[in-house]
């Protein structure tokens, strides 16, 4: 047998084997899928059901209204921080004061950015990512990135109060 016929047999075998494989990629691993997948943020857990002591004293139903088992994330967060969710006014100043009672670090964003950069330098990704210098992570999430200065300006044009602003030059100059 000649080298050309051996090569032809090898290519034919490779073609036959590749036809046996599956080309489907699990939805969670395929960042480029065009199909609508599950939205893990749409699942909101409810609170535990409670049996009332007297079934005759139940309030009348309120169709479309709130329910005792509906999630209340803001009130739950206020209660977890030691506040009273029923005593909220127009401002969350008391909550912010309580959360900052042990002090705040004005350079926390810069510290976190530096720690993130150090982590990414130590964990550089897969071989192909290191060779090309690119990762799929940034490409996959680039359309969802938020430009904080542009967003701050958008909210200010709408005359919405912005109690906290990003610590960059553009936003600080606008204050």
Automatic annotation (TrEMBL):
Source organism superkingdom: Bacteria
Pfam family, one: DUF3035
Name of this protein: DUF3035 domain-containing protein
């Amino acid at each position: 047998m000649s080298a050309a016929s051996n090569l032809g047999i090898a290519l034919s075998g490779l073609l036959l084997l590749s036809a046996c494989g599956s080309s489907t990629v699990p939805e969670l691993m395929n960042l480029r899928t065009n199909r609508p997948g599950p939205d893990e943020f749409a699942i909101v857990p409810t609170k535990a059901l409670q049996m009332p002591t007297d079934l005759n004293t139940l309030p009348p139903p309120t169709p479309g209204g709130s329910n005792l088992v509906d999630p209340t994330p803001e009130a739950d967060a206020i209660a977890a921080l030691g506040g009273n969710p029923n005593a909220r006014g127009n401002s969350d100043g008391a909550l912010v004061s309580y959360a900052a009672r042990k002090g705040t670090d004005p350079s926390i964003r810069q510290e976190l950015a530096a720690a993130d950069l150090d982590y990414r330098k130590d964990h550089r990704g897969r071989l192909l990512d290191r060779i090309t210098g690119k990762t799929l992570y940034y490409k996959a999430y680039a359309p969802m990135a938020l430009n904080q200065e542009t967003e701050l300006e958008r909210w200010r044009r709408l005359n919405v109060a912005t109690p906290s602003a990003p610590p960059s030059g553009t936003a600080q100059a606008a204050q």
